Amino acid sequence: MSPTVAGLLQVGILVVALAAAYRPLGDYMARVFSDAKHSRLELAVYRIGRINPDSEQKWSTYAYGVLGFSFVSVVLLYVLQRIQSWLPFSFDRGTIPPGMAFNTAVSFVTNTNWQSYVPETVMGHTVQMVGLTVQNFVSAAVGLAVAVALVRGFVRHQTDRLGNFWVDLTRGTIRILLPIAFVFAIVLIALGVTMSLKSGVDVDGQTIANAPVASQEAIKELGTNGGGVLNANSAHPFENPSEWTNLIEIFLLLVIPVSLTRTFGQLVGNKKQGYVLLSVMGVIWTAMLGIIWAAEASGLRPLEGKELRFGIPASALFANSTTGTSTGAVNSMHDSFTGLGGGGAMLNMLFGEMTPGGVGTGLYSILVMAIIAMFLAGLMVGRTPEYLGKKLGRKEVTAAAVSILAMPTVLLIGAGIAAILPSTQGALNNPGSHGLSEILYAYASASNNNGSAFAGITVTNDWFQASLGVCMALGRFVPIIAVLALAGSLAAQKKVPVTAGTLPTTGPLFASLLTGAIVLVAALTFVPALALGPIAEALL
Amino acid sequence: MDNFFKQAWAGLRILLALTVICGVLYPLAVWGVSRIPGLHGNAEATDTTLVAVVRQGDGYFVPRPSAATLPASGASNKGERNSDYDKVISQRRTEIAQREGVAEDQVPQDAVTASASGLDPDISPEYAALQVPRVARASGLSLEKVRELVHANTGGTFTTTVNVTALNRAIDTAR
Questions:
Q1: Using the beta-carbon criterion (under 8 Å), do A121 and B30 form an inter-chain contact?
Q2: Using CB atoms within 10 A of its CB, is residue B45 exposed (0-12), middle (13-18) or buried (19+)?
Q3: Above 0.95 for ipTM, yes or no?
Q4: Where does A174-269 have alpha helices with state H?
Q5: pLDDT per residue over A402-429, tens digit each?
Q6: Which residue of B has its CA nearest to A433?
Q7: Where are the domains of chain A?
Q8: Closest-CA distance of chain B to residue A292, Å
């Protein structure tokens, strides 16, 4: 089979699988978040939390819930790492140093899963399971909760209530993520992924590190987390042993963000509103796949940093999907990609992670961008813009703008300072424009909560640990607060009746407008920086 | 601020509850299922052919170059415009050509480039074919026998590859 045919076949299988899951999963998620009943396990969780699941919250309380939960998550994960040497299954790997523990705690709580450590020599199994795996679940569930709260803002009228964060968080975890992760962890084991409580295994006289891989692998992809149990991430044969596990892992990291457009359509009572978002995501995803694949297929040494069982097409497919969602798992090393291929992966993140984006984050990010697009359209015709029956006034547009601008601000300031620090020179793995790309990629990944890397860069000094940690936190929570404020002010409004002057948001005109807004905002913000990094390298 | 601490306190309690469910019960349940005989015998990866390490001696097939520091996995992360790394690649090409007694332009890409994991179990059929005469000579097996073993360890659904680890163990058995 020629590589092109093989690649197209794999893309085809992936798309068919996603299409098959789209309706059932999308509808199921819509039911989960509108169900009036609680399960027994959920009621037990609410009792432990001493919260009343039937009382709803204002946007500010909902936001305090997100922030409070994330804050205690960071503290707990930090403490777990700092006491690792006393924990079982730690194999004398010692305690994690403070800078690295801070960075890792923020990284996993913000759904970034940026890794400044080599898991095989640093992380024991207890921290992996009790700390990192838990955040793989709940950080994804936080994203889901915020997305659902924003959708409620559109659906509800003249109320200050957005739902209950603890209920949304618990349901997302227990009813959506946990069962799917469990089933696929078993499937992955059956296909060869390892699941061991030992520290390593002897292979022809050499010790190769092993870990409880399968349980974390499944949720790592499903929750668009991406933090590898092993250093090589999904390139490691224990995490991703075959072409089929590879397809399953790509499927897992796309399935929730894609299906959430259906959930959205169901919740707003017009499925076409969801399809139009999906079409925008799909167009950009497909275009970027074409760019990255073509660039890699014509590279100078295309197999450097790639696994032979995946080859070029399946590596490009994974790279495009992991950066288009906010996953950041890798099955090939983006640092060794061509200028254009690596630049494409970077651009996927710079779009703001909405093609299709992370679990929940993708949906709320593209909805915010839809507000920006409608605002631009409103400016063109001189009419107050509306979206889904809500007027987009000064408050709404301001919140949307803050949400969109947070990421570029922290990214460019962070990368700018890093580029002029003398210590950075020694941290780079490659000279010239590719070195700058390594810096840009790191800050793009952190600020967008992606977590993939041009991994040659050494990010263990205090500056990188601290600044990337801050970028991850601001890149996550500033947009979340803005989105919840937006949801609050939308929910307070009356519904505006549809008139002849309303721009329909289910057709190709709106889809083009939204696609244009996504591309334009990224281009206007990042072309100068990209010109010195990946664009310069691609033109060499 | 009061509201923040109130929510954080509820958050801590809920986090601990979810930690028991997702961080203890879930991985242990998956681990438990992985012990069921017949599901898959190899969650522990004993005798695994999923990863390759270099075997000493000319009587074995050589896997792809590795940038890993065992027991951890790892890649070179060198960009394609890195001229220092060009030298590493061309040196590898020269060494392989000499080792196999062929012209440098016959050495395939996968033979000179480091894999993503540093543990890639596979080589291309071209690289395997290149190594057959040397392995046959050094192992005392016939050319036909070695070719047959290569064939038996060639597979893949979309990409055809040769599993070096399985192949080298087959050579052990045949000797």
A1: no
A2: buried
A3: yes
A4: 178-190, 213-222, 243-267
A5: 999 999 999 999 999 999 999 999 999 9
A6: B81
A7: 358-539
A8: 15
